[in-house]
Amino acid sequence: MQEIKIRPLTKEDFAPFGDLLDISGEPDKIINQGNCGRYHNRAGLDFIDGAAGISLFDAKPRALPYELEMMERHPLGSQAFIPMNYAPFLIIAALDNGGTPGLPMAFLSTSGQAINFHRNVWHGVLTPLHGPGLFAVVDRIGERANLEEVFFDTPYLVVS
C-alpha cells in the first residue's frame, strides 16, 4: 500500500485543485459600521446546466492513518466545503490522468479554512478528523447526474 503524506493546506499548493477560502490578508471592505471585514468572492463557483445550492452535510469523523479507497469528481459543477466548527479536516485531491485520478495529494486544513474544488477535479470524500463533522456545502443542483467515482484496486494509506 502506497503512503501519502499529509501537507498543510496552502493557497499555492491547493491551486491546481480549487480555491482556499480563508481570511488571509486584509479584508476587501469594512462593513457593518466598521465591525466586520468582508473577504469578498473567495471561490470561483462554476456550474453547467444547473444552479448553486447550499446543503448541510453531517459526516462521521475518520481517523489517521486513513485508507483512501476511492475518489470522485463532479464534471458539471464546483463544490465548496465550509466547516461549521473550528476543527481541521482532511482534504484529498488528484489531477486527472486520462479519465482517472493521478497520484493523490493530502492536505490538512487549519481552523477557519474552507475549500472549493473546481469543476471536474478528483477528490476524496468529506473527511472530518474530529466531530461534529457538520459542513455547509455549496454545489450544483440540477437534473443531470454530476458524479463520477473510481475505486482503487489497492488503497492508498494517508498518514500524518
Offer a quick outline of the entry.
This protein has one domain: Ureidoglycolate hydrolase (Jelly Rolls, Sandwich). 2% of the residues lie in helices and 47% in strands. The protein has one helix spanning 11-14; strands spanning 3-8, 18-21, 29-31, 36-38, 51-58, 66-73, 79-83, 89-94, 105-108, 114-117, 122-123, 127-128, 134-141, 148-159.
> At CATH's second level, what is the architecture?
Sandwich
Looking at CATH, which topology would you report? Jelly Rolls
CATH homologous superfamily identity: Ureidoglycolate hydrolase
Termini, distance in Å? Answer: 15 Å
Task: Describe the model.
It is a single chain. With 160 residues, the protein is an all-beta fold. The chain has a single domain, classed as Jelly Rolls. It is built from 1 helix and 14 strands, in the order E-H-E-E-E-E-E-E-E-E-E-E-E-E-E. The longest helix has 4 residues, at 11-14. The radius of gyration is 16 Å and the shape is globular.
Task: Show the helix and strand layout.
Blueprint lengths: L2 E6 L2 H4 L3 E4 L7 E3 L4 E3 L12 E8 L7 E8 L5 E5 L5 E6 L10 E4 L5 E4 L4 E2 L3 E2 L5 E8 L6 E12 L1
Descriptive keywords:
160 residues, mainly beta, seven-stranded mixed β-sheet, five-stranded antiparallel β-sheet, 14 strands
